[in-house]
């Protein structure tokens, strides 16, 4: 889905060599440079997701500076967080054309530019464009390649690698909350955003570390470790099928591209022959025409692959349980994001700033969130435990915490609830597993992209909705109650649809038996 020729490669022309020669293990698959990719992805999660989870600090500064409503001001944070996830499917187009490394480097520059330009904001609407849109798109351009590259470099340890890299979100939320609070206190929020923009340039370094795999390395990734010729052929077939599903390899697109290239080269050669006696200007026009032609072919192919990857997956929506999963995703993520944005102001209203300065509540969520991901992952891997049941129990715990949080008005009570929110939200690490169980491995990439996009929509509208409710009621209580109830509706959809599907399957089996 997000792969490109540069990042994966597809040269499987010499199949006989694969079957006749034993391939030595590549030290960069499941080891070597692969761990540098994990480190790069870990830093990306710290600098992007961690910074977004710490935006509650800046949200208070913007409320005081611009004196706007809480609902309007919250749009700045939610735009940045939502766009980062929503643009995921569209960033796949850039990755298809220029690879993960270049996409991430451009995104790092764009993200840093958004932070720096936001330091000169004169109103909230200016922040919508600079921080919400610019920094948000930049974050999406780095975040997606960071996730994709880990999957490319790991075969046997993929779950471990993804788990280690995503823990950067928890570490980042803890570190960035403390950093932004310190910078705002010492230098003011404008200088804090300028400094954070300079720090975000390190995303370009993270992108530079994303060295694309060569075709030979990718071939070894799938074939190595299979002793018999039959297993090797099976692994080769699997790698070819995987790349086809990701929109990289296909006979018809390849033939079309070759025909297009031959047509372009034929035209160029014809012009070149006639241009030998021409002037330097005609030669310059020839080179320009050659470059534009190659670029056009690359863009057309990249768009075709991207379009087929996403919009060719319409069969996913015939799966009612998956549709229920999408509905759940539209409500779930906002319940996790709202506390990060509005908790600092809630603490200020309850006059608990002194205790919160010692150990911020958002930092408690972030730290426990790390352990939640690891522990829930270990529990779900037990042979006697169902991943689906662990996923549902974690969701029930989280929605209960969201509904009870407004009832806590002491620091200890809020800290306990925040710890439970952090632990139960560790179910994020189970989402790829649950998605794969629903749609199968073949459609996993497309399905997970849709789920992430739904999460982005949830993050986009959640915080402004909570701020708007506060502007009407002058309390955050109803914001959490409504968000919790909507979240509960999503969970109910997850519970009902599998039961309906099982009932329909039993009825269908009974009818077939009678016939």
From TrEMBL:
The chain crosses the membrane at residues 33-55, 75-95, 102-120, 126-148, 160-180, 192-210, 321-341, 361-379, 386-405, 411-434, 446-466, 478-496. GO terms for molecular function: monocarboxylic acid transmembrane transporter activity. Its main location: membrane. Residues 37-502 form the Major facilitator superfamily (MFS) profile domain. It comes from the Eukaryota. The keyword Calcium does not apply. It is found in: Membrane. Keywords: Membrane, Transmembrane, Transmembrane helix. It is a multi-pass membrane protein. One of its GO terms (cellular component) is membrane. InterPro entries: MFS, MFS_dom, MFS_trans_sf, Proton-linked_MCT. This is MOT14 protein. It comes from Melospiza melodia. The lineage of its organism: Eukaryota, Metazoa, Chordata, Craniata, Vertebrata. The gene is Slc16a14.
